[in-house]
Amino acid sequence: MLNNSSSTRIATYNVNGISARLPVLLKWLEETQPDIVCLQELKAIQENFPEKAIRDLGYNVIWHGQKSWNGVAILAYNEEIKEIRRVLPGDPEDVHSRYIEAFVGDLLVGGLYLPNGNPAPGPKFDYKLGWMKRFETHTNELLKQNVPVVLCGDYNVIPTEKDVYKPERWVDDALFRPESREAFHQLTNKGWIDALRKLYPDETIYTFWDYFRNAYGRDAGLRIDHFLINPMLENRLIKAGVDRHVRGWEKSSDHAPVWIELAK
């Protein structure tokens, strides 16, 4: 692995359009050298994914693209990726590219881009809650497996008031509505561990800053990009963080990369 022989760094990054953000993504990969990366919101059809540029940095990659929006990928540095699935079970009519799952070494990695759900209430919010219910059902099955599991990505959920700047302004937003938060808490109640909050229970941590109203400059952010790990990994979790400086780069995504480190 890249970082050192004693730990594995896993990152998640909503790139908000991989074609437009490719220079930023490649710069970040070269700067931080994570071992495993989950990407979301590729906004590119399957054929337009920049596979060569990723592989030239030493990463193997699998991806599930979709025209104009959505799209997810898993990268692994110099490590085989054994794809398990590229769709969330439970709804054969759902054609959105929002979930991808694979083994990388001994880790089962799920990368997800959970629906935004706005405007709420409405059909999009209903779809979000239905997706979250399917996700919970799938994660229940994953908990039964005797393997270490990491589920990371853009969850589009603000779990608590301390995860958002001025929470009173978000009470009607799908990301902060009680139904969304309850669905997220159902996961942690079942045994999934919110990795960043496990290590930093009381700190202000944001992973997203809107492009408008100088949100990044004012640090008016949200924490919506999450790592959930199963109990098998609890004692292996040693570090976590947000590469928030990347949000300040020219033509950067409105999300910052988020990462954890696991002892081997």
From TrEMBL:
InterPro entries attached to this UniProt entry: AP_endonuc_1 (IPR004808), AP_endonuclease_F1_BS (IPR020847), Endo/exonu/phosph_ase_sf (IPR036691), Endo/exonuclease/phosphatase (IPR005135), ExoIII-like (IPR037493)
GO molecular function, one term: endonuclease activity
Site label Important for catalytic activity, positions: 225
Coiled coil: none
SUPFAM superfamilies xref list: DNase I-like
Statement: the UniProt record of this protein carries the keyword Magnesium: yes
Alphabetical GO biological process terms: DNA repair
Interaction with DNA substrate (site feature) positions: 255
CDD domains (alphabetical): ExoIII-like_AP-endo
Cofactor: binding details: Probably binds two magnesium or manganese ions per subunit.
Record keywords: Hydrolase, Magnesium, Manganese, Metal-binding
Family classification: Belongs to the DNA repair enzymes AP/ExoA family.
PANTHER family membership: EXODEOXYRIBONUCLEASE III
Name of the molecule in the record: Exodeoxyribonuclease III
Lineage of source species: Bacteria, Pseudomonadati, Bacteroidota, Sphingobacteriia, Sphingobacteriales
